[in-house]
Amino acid sequence: NPASNRLIESVNEGGGGAELRLVDPFLGQYLTPNSGSLPSGGVTHPAWSPDGRWLAYVANIATWGGENTTGDIWKLPVTGTVAFGAPEVVITGTTAPGLPGGSAASYPSWTPDSQRIAFAHGSSSRSESGASALYIVGADGRGVVRLDRACGGAATQDNFQPRFSPFAQDGYFWMSFLSRRDYGNERAGTRGQARQQIWVS
Fold first, then answer.
1. Where would I find the beta strands (DSSP E) of the chain?
2. Based on CB atoms within 10 Å of each CB, which residue in 41, 44, 126, 141 is the most buried?
3. What are 13-38's pLDDT values in tens digits?
4. Please, is 21 exposed, middle or buried when counting C-beta atoms within 10 Å of its C-beta (0-12, 13-18, 19+)?
5. What distance in Å separates the CA atoms of residue 44 and residue 76, rounded to the nearest whole number?
6. How far is CA 9 from CA 6, 45, 121, 187, in A?
7. Strand arrangement, sheet containing 172-179
């Protein structure tokens, strides 16, 4: 979290048994919320908002976080150091535009101002072999936009795992992500092998 005194992690990945757990990083212990509860039953990819008020996560996964083929973005209000409110859906995996056959929203990441959430969406979250593009949506679930420039075009399906820097710099929000686009590989002799690279937008 922004105060660096709590961690959130996903455990028991593998489908229906996955859950989020709160950790005291100094004691190395799991913590039971004083109020509310953490989501369980097929959840993964937790992301704390920079203002500390929300947790975004993926719910309703079919397998595990690294290869889920279904998934919805939810958010959970953080009401205290060890307290949470009622979860709210941000966007379901079947409503994001751009990839009609896909139903897997994955890897939510908050903008530094905690107003919007970037995420990947497609048929699978697996960056080695799946099909996915990058999107951004308001924290209230409105205004979904496909990030065509970052993705390298309106029809690309080889971009995964967006992650915002928690800080604005020089008037910009910076986001890293994985892409399999064929860039710089001809000279290295790896052209056409869809190797993953880290990109920044």
1. 7-11, 19-24, 29-31, 43-48, 54-59, 72-80, 83-84, 88-91, 104-110, 116-122, 132-138, 145-146, 159-169, 172-179, 197-200
2. 44
3. 876 789 999 999 999 999 999 999 99
4. middle
5. 13
6. 10, 8, 21, 40
7. 159-169, 172-179, 197-200
Paired tokens of 157: 């399906």
- Please provide residue 66's backbone torsions phi and psi, each rounded to the nearest 5 degrees: -80, -10
Asked if 199 and 179 count as a contact pair (C-beta separation under 8 A), the reply is: yes
Tokens of 94: 């079947």
pLDDT, tens digit (0-9, with 9 covering 90-100), for 153-165: 998 999 999 999 9
> What's the predicted TM-score (pTM) here?
0.93
Quote the tokens at residue 130.
């799946």
Q: Give the H or E element holding residue 150.
A: helix 148-151
Residue type, 149: R
Whole-number Å distance between alpha carbons of 33 and 97: 36
Report residue 138's pLDDT band, with 50, 70 and 90 as the boundaries.
Answer: very high
**Among candidates 32, 49, 45, which has minimal Cα distance to 93?**
45
